[in-house]
Specification:
The chain contains 18 helices and no strands. The protein has one domain. By secondary structure, it is mainly alpha-helical. The radius of gyration is 21 Å and the shape is globular. Helix 5 packs antiparallel against helix 7, helix 8 runs antiparallel to helix 9 and helix 17 packs antiparallel against helix 18.
Length: 405
């Protein structure tokens, strides 16, 4: 049974009646939303001007562009020497190739970049990131008031824009699923192709989605996801018949297990003598068990835009492989808390922590630096504290009808 059928959660502005969500004049809300949108556009346009005056090869974007170039030429998009040659021809000056680490089904998204020169492709890519970020926030919005300005200027959004990273597209896919899984089940399942570009960040969410779809017989969600994933995995084969073999060979050659990562899983591994790789998977394994149990206890009152956002936050935090810009996936949980009427005092605390992270970005400190190791933990602590302060901890939705398991 859907939330609307059970008399529980409803969508968009009617959420104002749920446990103290914001209420306010729609006209005032629109003015605030417009002001926030203009602010984020100004910041992103400033970043865009930097891209136009600097070499596009200096950003993570270059690995997507080089792979798209090779794919267009029906060559292996994961071939190290070919990637290095293209990147250096664009002005990168690398000693080692910067290879795209996303699975082949992500090539469907980046393939159009191969039809443009690097500066033009970088310009269009950043425009797409800006538009996608704004649309994602709009999908995640709860209640009549827009999210606070700190949401639009969230440091990982700026980090993604500056690096040209794909995490914003992941956020868009999960935001669309959270909002429309009930009304547009097939298309919301199709949107999950975007999070599948970095499936390791959603390790805790995939089993819950599967269980929820099986329990509620939402086969159209699974059909949409399956059809989209199959198409995205097969199409690149027409350009490179051995693309999957090439991908796994390239990933093995990257030696990801030897890299420093500013996340909780790596820090846990670092504290264990010998630094065994398997320790990095322990938080995810424990998290999967916890999240499945959490869903089952709340299965009759489950609401993706609130409960799913909390699971996504945990999933991102315990992921075995993540970067600071991937913390963009904490945004659904942050927006949920900020939508509560009593969350106003918690927003300044978030703004201070976010301001420090933005300052680190503006100082051009590399994202691989330990200087960012605190940011994810700070967001988690803020979320737990702000959730309690807003009165959202332990919220139960009273349904007018009995929902059987």
């Amino acid at each position: 049974m859907s939330p609307r059928e059970g008399g529980g959660y409803t969508d968009d502005t009617s959420l104002a009646g749920w446990n103290g969500l914001n209420s306010g004049s729609p006209a005032v809300a629109k003015r605030f939303q417009l002001a926030a949108s203009v602010a984020v556009l100004v910041v992103c346009l400033a970043l865009l001007s930097i891209v136009l005056f600097q070499n596009a090869a200096n950003r993570d974007f270059i690995c997507y562009w080089s792979s798209a170039k090779l794919l267009r030429a029906h060559q292996n998009p994961y071939a190290g020497q070919a990637v290095l040659r293209i990147e250096n021809a664009a002005g990168a000056g690398y000693r080692e190739p910067f290879i795209m680490r996303n699975p082949p089904w992500a090539l469907l998204l980046v393939a159009p970049l191969g039809y443009f020169r690097a500066p033009v492709a970088g310009f269009l890519w950043l425009l797409a990131l800006i538009a996608t970020a704004l649309l994602s926030i709009k999908c995640l919005r709860m209640g009549p008031r827009p999210p606070p300005l700190v949401v639009y200027l969230f440091a990982p959004i700026l980090g993604c824009a500056m690096a040209g990273q794909t995490s914003i597209f992941l956020l868009a896919g999960i935001a669309f699923f959270f909002k429309y899984h009930d009304r547009l089940p097939y298309w919301s399942g199709l949107a999950l192709i975007l999070p599948a570009m970095k499936p390791h960040l959603f390790l805790l969410l995939w089993p819950v989605i599967l269980i929820a779809c099986w329990r509620k017989k939402e086969w159209r969600v699974l059909a949409g996801f399956g059809a989209g994933l199959a198409a995205a995995a097969v199409v690149p084969l027409f350009f490179d018949a051995h693309i999957w073999t090439d991908y796994f060979a390239a990933i093995r050659g990257e030696h990801i297990d030897q890299q420093y990562l500013a996340n909780l899983s790596f820090l846990l591994r670092f504290m264990v003598p010998g630094h065994p790789v398997w320790v990095q998977m322990v938080p995810s394994a424990l998290g999967i068990a916890f999240c499945c149990r959490y869903y089952w206890r709340r299965r009759n009152v489950w609401y993706w835009r609130a409960d799913g956002a909390a699971l996504l936050l945990i999933s991102t935090m315990v992921s075995p492989y993540s970067w600071p810009f991937d913390q963009l996936l904490l945004l659904p949980a942050i927006i949920h808390v900020c939508s509560a009427r009593r969350s106003a005092k918690a927003v300044p605390a978030l703004a201070v922590a976010n301001g420090v992270a933005v300052l680190l970005l503006l100082m051009t400190i590399p994202l691989s630096s330990p200087a960012y190791a605190w940011s994810g933990t700070a967001c988690l602590i803020w979320y737990v504290w702000a959730r309690r302060k807003a009165g959202l901890a332990g919220v139960r939705v009273v349904r007018t009808e009995l929902v059987t398991a």
